[in-house]
Amino acid sequence: LLCYVNENLPFKIKSSLRNYYTLVTEQNLDREKRSKYNITLTATDEGLPALSSKKAVVLEVTDINDNAPAFGQCVYSTKVMENNSPGIALLQIYATDPDQGQNARISYFLIDSEVNGNPVSSYFSINTESGMIQSLRSLDYEQVKEYKIPVKAQDGGSPPLITNTTVIVRVQDQNDNPPQVLYPVQTGGSLVAEMVPRSADVGYLVTKVVAVDVDSGQNAWLSYKLQKATDRALFEVGLQNGEIRTIRQVTDKDAVKQRLTVIVEDNGQPSRSATVIVNVAVADSFPEVLSEFTDFTHDKEYNDNLTFYLVLALAVVSFLFITCLVVIISVKIYRWRQSRILYHSNLPVIPYYPPRYSDTLGTGTLQHVYNYEVCRTTDSRKSDCKFGRAGIQNVLIMDPSSTGTMQRIQNEKSILDEPDSPIEVRCICKVFTFANIV
Q: Can you say where in the cell this protein is located (predicted)?
């Protein structure tokens, strides 16, 4: 009995026992090249004539994670205009995996790296499913002109296979910076002047305005123009180089102090500009120049300081006046309210007894004796009290119209001018009813 398979297949029949055969592979199978085989097995006997029988077998090759993700490009590049809006989409990368199922599921990640000392993840983000790269912040061409972002694609196999690539983001310049004047230096308090002798000829180089623009390309092309001048017929400014020269002969009639305003413009759209003031002294001697410009500076500083102090003094005086006015009005209102409350009060009169007063008959506990003359009416606010000089006897005077009695008050020492002399207290009370006193 013979058994064999059809040709052109990587399989063969192997006999282990009589009439038992094993189908084995002759080479490695690759599912990515061919995932399915139709195998025909033929068995033939040795008789005459020989008889045979066939059997069809379908063989499917299962997948293993033997292929890493593959990018379409080794390096991706894109451009973005500076001052972009955060969250803008920059580029989408894509990788493929010939494996099957979970082994072919690809995820995208940023590889840890730094840009200007900051992690790249603070500038960009990537969608793990789609591979879309977005900018997380507004980019500045003047800080970083190009970003290189390392990215990896990882499949879902076990263990996973990884492939890396690089994404280059080039930032395009925008005209977002005005020119910066380097010379002449603009100082706040002191004046810097260029000297021009009165014997200067036509085309005399007075000075040169130097400016730069941190932008690039045509955005950094600068032009110089004379905007204002004390005498426009005396000076001119080079359009490209910023040189200030005389355009006529200097005469004795020209003023010593010349003030030029030069404007520097770039070539961007829209253009940006900066201005610089150039002070020129037309004189042959330095003392003459010094006196002219020193007086000007001193007067300006003096006027500025005087104005500041006047405004400050006015503010302080106004604040003090308003504060005093509020305080006076508040005091007046408080006193008026207190007087109204006292006038309309209907509270009963409560008598006051001294701390050491005792109601024992004939044995007063006051240390001194005083004479009091008290006049009281039903309206206690109109009562009056008269004080008398100290005496030597104890006196108790009763008003005939009263229904109560007054107790004798005796003290042993005096608290007036003579501490050791006894003092008499004379009390005269005009009381209509005893209930009114209580």
A: Cell membrane
Query: Does this model's pTM top 0.85?
Result: no
CATH assignment of 70-172?
2.60.40.60
Taking only the tens place, the pLDDT of each residue in 280-293 is: 998 887 666 655 55
**pLDDT value, residue 346:** 58
Q: Which amino acid is at 396?
A: L
Q: How far apart are CA 339 and CA 183, in angstroms?
A: 77
pLDDT-derived band at 339 (thresholds 50, 70, 90) equals confident
Nearby residues of 181 by Cβ (< 8 Å), 6 or more positions away: 209, 210, 211, 264, 274, 276
Asked which of 80-89, 292-301, 326-335 is least confident by mean pLDDT, the reply is: 292-301
Gap between the Cα atoms of 398 and 302, Å rounded: 86
* Sequence-distant contacts of 429-432: CB under 8 A, at least 24 apart: 429/374, 429/375, 429/376, 429/398, 429/399, 429/402, 430/374, 430/375, 430/376, 430/377, 430/399, 430/401, 430/402, 431/376, 431/399, 431/401, 431/402, 431/404, 432/377, 432/378, 432/401, 432/402
| Phi (first) and psi of residue 9, to 5 degrees | -125, 145
3-class SS string, 50-109 = CCEEEEEEEEECCCCCCCCCEECCCEEEEEEECCCCCCCEEEECCEECCCCHHHHCEEEE
180-293: CATH homologous superfamily?
Cadherins (2.60.40.60)
Report domain extents, the chain: 2-60, 70-172, 180-293
Residues 77, 62: Cα–Cα separation, whole Å: 38
